[in-house]
Sequence to fold (699 residues):
Amino acid sequence: MTIDFSFLARYQDALLMGLGMTLRLTLIAFALGIVWGFVLALLRNSSIAPVRWIAAVYVEFFRGTPVLIQIFWIFYCMPIFLGTDLSNFTAAVLCLTLYGGAIMSETFRAGMKSIGREQYDACHALGLSPWTRATRIVLPQATLRSVPVLLSNGIGIFKESSLVSAIGMMELMFIGTTISNRTGRPVEVFTAVALIYFVVAFPLTRLVTWLEKRILKRFAI
Amino acid sequence: MEYEFQFHYILQAWPVLMEGLKVTVQLTVIANIIALTLGFVIALLVLSKYWLLRAPFALMIELFRCTPVLVQILWFFYCVPILFGIYLAPLPMGILALGINLACFNAEAYRAAIQAVPREQLDAGVALGFSPLQRVRYVVFPHAFRAALPVLITNGITLFQQSALVAIVALSDLMYMGRQVATQSYRPIETYTAVALIYFAISFPVSRVAAWVEQRLDAARA
Amino acid sequence: MTEIQPLVEMRGVHKNYGTLQVLSGIDLEMWPGDRLVVIGPSGGGKSTLLRIMMGLEDIRRGEIDLLGKRYITGHEQSGKTRIDSTLRKQVGMVFQHYTLFPHLTIISNLTLAAIKTRGMPKPAALDKGMQLLKRLGLESKAQSYPSQLSGGQKQRVAIARALMLDPRLMLFDEVTSALDPELVAEVEAVMLELAEQQMPMMLVTHDMWFAKNIASRVIFCAGGVVVEDGPPEQVLGDPVNPRTREFIERVFHIKT
Fold:
């Protein structure tokens, strides 16, 4: 069979709309996930042991199970618990946030852990209060170290967002599958969809590398 | 909440789920074996002196790393037969898709590890009169494999979880079987919880192993 | 006639890391104007002594006074060490690895603690910081980040950071050990200048020539105790104790 991409021009708007939805899902889940991830990281360092345990189990569970099953679980099971239906948009955002938060809490934790003992000694020797130490020394350094990885996590969420097509969310993947089914031309459609994802994700991965180098050069951390 | 848990559905469906798990494990193990070897070869190619060897494989790595696995799976299932005339049963096709995906991620891990092999080690290899192939075999690979091991294991577990996506192309793995059971029994909560726990019960211990290996390597380096 | 009060008084300081006994009963008095150099074999507890003085380490037993006030007490029974945190307003410390804050500019490194712990108004802190930098010839680096400085410059900034807080006692823990040889002199010069201004200091160094130049007093620590204590000419030149003698011979490669 001949490969001909030209018919895709007719579906340009649909694909762009799908990409728009994918980006919207990604950005919302990314923003909420950062907040949730930071809270989780703090909970995992809590002085109350049960709080630490629950947070750890949460994180390990979301990291240790397929995202697809998390999506199904939230979409099909949450409504039974909550007693109301979730729109697939809500379910998609919720799932990606809960998952993203678990991943990003690990990033924050690694960032906090990587601050050397000498930095704490110096804070001590200068008589800085625990509050000043946390807000002026630990948090900024942890953030600087975490930013590139958080961005990578964001790219991960962008890719995982394709899974919400399984619960009928009309994002890029879903629209691609629909077009493929309707036209019977999977080669062109899936190649195009893959390229659209690539065109967004690839520059971002370069940005991550660039940021990493820049932070390393500027601050040597 | 008035929901009544009825876990005996799970007991009934257990053999079916185990059938699915078998497929999932098969997929994961074979894809990992492919990726551990192929990944190293790709890493060597990407580090080649020759632009013509480097470029296509660098592009391949980026393509696989920067697109969703789901797209890759659909692409393999729908496009490979048409484009290349390769017709495989669903399981081998799933293995091929996941194996190549993982190989690209492993290649990145190997590449970083190969670049970190100490210069003196390579010099020593030359000084001892090893051929280039022998140097790769006896000096580069052992170093790189050790250094990359934690990432390789982590990648392996990630693939175990990603393998659930083949359910979407009707490959009867654990995820697929779980979905069947959930729809037929009308017990999504129990079924999806059980399926999630099965995945977790396997990936969590392995992730501990990865953490342990990393600690040991760090300790050895320090 | 009023009695001169010792600056530092340590009595029976014991320290161990697990089962490893690092200090086994240090008794030490430091007088105002003393520039005390601590020498001794590695693992002899020199750095530990300074870290304890800064309140960075717990002690098993013993007490430490500064200007007649009790700041550190080790309670052996409870295993707890009571450290009065106002100690940190009196003592400043410079570490081997600079420990500047990498995310702050040089001037912010200097002013942060002054503003936050001394309640100094920001303009005053900036003013003082710039003056200190000028004295060290580093005023052009005020807006740079630590990563943009050489090791010697970083260490001078670290000294300035400690001086910002007007300490009564300065601790220098092997501050030139991590430096390239050609950068050592600029840091030592700053310390010698402080010595001229009668700044009391306690320092650990492996550089015996520098020790001889800066010390008003040298103690030789080995096996967790003070083996010998005296003026530099004696301890470094003609030690009384055979253990000190052996050590000095080894590091100077000469027979005394």
In short: The helical segments of chain B are 8-46, 51-65, 69-84, 90-115, 119-127, 132-162, 174-185, 188-221. Chain B has eight helices and no strands. Residues 118 and 203 of chain B are 33 Å apart (CA to CA).
